Amino acid sequence: MSIEEKIEKSKIAETQIIDNQQKLDYDLRTYRIEDFLNIYKPDLENTENELVLNNNPKNMWDIEKQSKFIQSVILGVSPIYTVVMVEIPETYKLEIVDGKYYLKTLDNFINNKLELSKLNILTSLEGFYFRDLSIPRQRKFKNAPIKTIVFSGKDVKMVKNELITQIFTKQENNI
Questions:
Q1: Which of 36, 88, 136, 138 is most solvent-facing, going by the fewest CB within 10 Å?
Q2: Which residues have a Cβ under 8 Å from the Cβ of 51 and sit 6 or more positions away?
Q3: Kind and range of the H or E element at 7?
Q4: 44 DSSP 8-state letter
């Protein structure tokens, strides 16, 4: 391939990238776990409200994975988890693309529906429900941060599909 052909091919590639680049906005938000669940809890089961859950073919994390997630929140590692949402242009509802299991696990634990088990660090908490924690520890847990990123804009559907592809690829490869 000649230098002129390489330059022309490079120009075509650059035009294609610019034409297909996503035009969207995003908003980063940090909530206290308790506030986030209070805002979105009614919507975990009700799709008529502001939040829409993206239906993942898998049901839910197993008890061990949920317990280890709760353990990480208690240990103060929760800021590394991010709930990813997109704003649906037609309705302005927020759809969770990634993070539904975080929310359901937090909701289950705070509502005493999750008994901690198979913990690898905080083994003394095995068999505990949220109610078994001291009141100050419950308060600290509810005050832990949860980060969200909300994508919006005209190309949000394309971005959502790309995010879902990336998330499921990550899950399949256990990354």
A1: 136
A2: 40, 43, 44, 85, 93, 94, 95, 96
A3: helix 3-20
A4: H
Q: Find all residues with CB under 8 Å of 35, minimum gap 6, and list them.
A: none
Identify residue 109 by its one-letter amino acid code. F
Rounded to an integer, what is the distance from CA 159 to the centroid of its chain? Answer: 15
**CA 119: distance to chain centroid?**
22
What residue ranges in 21-125 does DSSP mark as E strands?
25-32, 51-53, 82-87, 94-98
For 81-130, what is each residue's pLDDT tens digit? 888 888 877 777 788 888 888 888 999 999 999 999 999 999 999 999 99
Half-sphere CA count of 83, side-chain side, radius 13 A: 29
Residue-wise pLDDT for 105-114, tens only, equals 999 999 999 9
- What single letter denotes the amino acid at residue 20? N
d(CA 66, CA 78): 13
Q: Do the Cβ atoms of 48 and 40 come closer than 8 Å?
A: no
Task: Supply the pTM of this predicted model.
Answer: 0.72
